[in-house]
């Protein structure tokens, strides 16, 4: 029932086929004893060739006990006119044509260039996503005013994307090189651990996408997940549930199909982790459809007669496009297509599509829900303003100290004031934010110092 075979298992099956062939050969030779002019039955190391008449081209089905063969193809041998198997004199071996048997192997070899291009594509995509996600997590953790249940969920989602990208890089380093399998891809504990962590973080990423969908859906329809107490339940769903079914898969794989590095599919065992992931994708897509439906109805109710229908459609399209990366809608496009064929235009379109969107999804999510977030931009601007004002004050202090006599050079004019006067006129950085509006009191105070007769107590608004 398992679709994976180890090297030792293949050798064992081949030895059995050889023994069976030897018994057939002995039986045939005993029956045709005394006859001449025919090619005798023979085992060539792969196929058991039957007795054949002189001048006959013999064809045999590619043996099923060779796992990588095309079992619908045929192998060929030529029995020459003298009753001997045709030889290749340059190598002193019997001629045989195994071209049809090795169709799959040849097609995989031709696909190496495609695999290299796909590897480069998702490596660049995951690298860009990893860098942007690290910055996004730092921003959300650094600014205390951004700490809320919604952003906590965003942090966990970003972390799951980071872990997924790192696990893919680790898996590639352990299992593969650009040209194929590396020497580290033997059946060792290290490569099995790498594959296990890759599957776990892949599952956690999908389940945190599901958590985001559930949270947004609840805010629209029920509004019961705004309390921080529910955050622990969401954490269990995001990190705990995948740990359960991945652990079950590890136990089943170790006991029933402990082959290679666990990176090759092992029959129906793959459904242990694929069914929960596919279920999460489907549920999230249904939530996405329902939310878009509600957005469309609300848009038509509130803006009927106010906006042109084309503007309403644009607003709905914009909202839909913003939600698509968060809900992982792109997973639904080729969800029903299996990876059975590794050739053809459809397969290449599918792989390029999935590698691009899967690897860049983390970047899109970080860009839309962190870098384009108004609250985040406000906090970053405030921090930058505080830093700029602090540096400006330090620079003015150094200029005051170096000018001598307490005179301060500012704005191209001399103002005979002391450093004590400047420090009294400066508002502390903490007082720069009132209701989200920046009060640049420092600028007005310093400007007033240059023109004493025009001192204004009205702060400038920025």
UniProtKB/TrEMBL annotation:
PROSITE patterns with a match to the protein in the record: G_PROTEIN_RECEP_F2_1, G_PROTEIN_RECEP_F2_2, G_PROTEIN_RECEP_F2_3, G_PROTEIN_RECEP_F2_4
InterPro entries the UniProt entry points to: GPCR_2, GPCR_2-like_7TM, GPCR_2_extracell_dom_sf, GPCR_2_extracellular_dom, GPCR_2_parathyroid_rcpt, GPCR_2_secretin-like, GPCR_2_secretin-like_CS
Keywords in alphabetical order: Cell membrane, Disulfide bond, G-protein coupled receptor, Glycoprotein, Membrane, Receptor, Signal, Transducer, Transmembrane, Transmembrane helix
GO biological process entries: adenylate cyclase-activating G protein-coupled receptor signaling pathway; cell surface receptor signaling pathway; phospholipase C-activating G protein-coupled receptor signaling pathway
Keyword presence, Metal-binding: no
Cellular compartment(s): Cell membrane
Cellular component annotations (GO), alphabetically ordered: plasma membrane
Domain G-protein coupled receptors family 2 profile: from-to ranges: 20-105, 118-373
Topology of the protein relative to the lipid bilayer: Multi-pass membrane protein
Main localization category: membrane
Transmembrane segments: 120-143, 155-178, 198-224, 231-251, 271-295, 316-335, 355-372
Molecular function in Gene Ontology: G protein-coupled peptide receptor activity; parathyroid hormone receptor activity; peptide hormone binding
Domain of life: Eukaryota
One Pfam family here: 7tm_2
Family per record: Belongs to the G-protein coupled receptor 2 family.
Subunit structure: Homodimer in the absence of bound ligand. Peptide hormone binding leads to dissociation of the homodimer.
Function: G-protein-coupled receptor for parathyroid hormone (PTH) and for parathyroid hormone-related peptide (PTHLH). Ligand binding causes a conformation change that triggers signaling via guanine nucleotide-binding proteins (G proteins) and modulates the activity of downstream effectors, such as adenylate cyclase (cAMP). PTH1R is coupled to G(s) G alpha proteins and mediates activation of adenylate cyclase activity. PTHLH dissociates from PTH1R more rapidly than PTH; as consequence, the cAMP response induced by PTHLH decays faster than the response induced by PTH.
Full protein name: Parathyroid hormone/parathyroid hormone-related peptide receptor
Organism, scientific name: Takifugu rubripes
Lineage summary: Eukaryota, Metazoa, Chordata, Craniata, Vertebrata
Gene assigned in the entry: LOC115250221
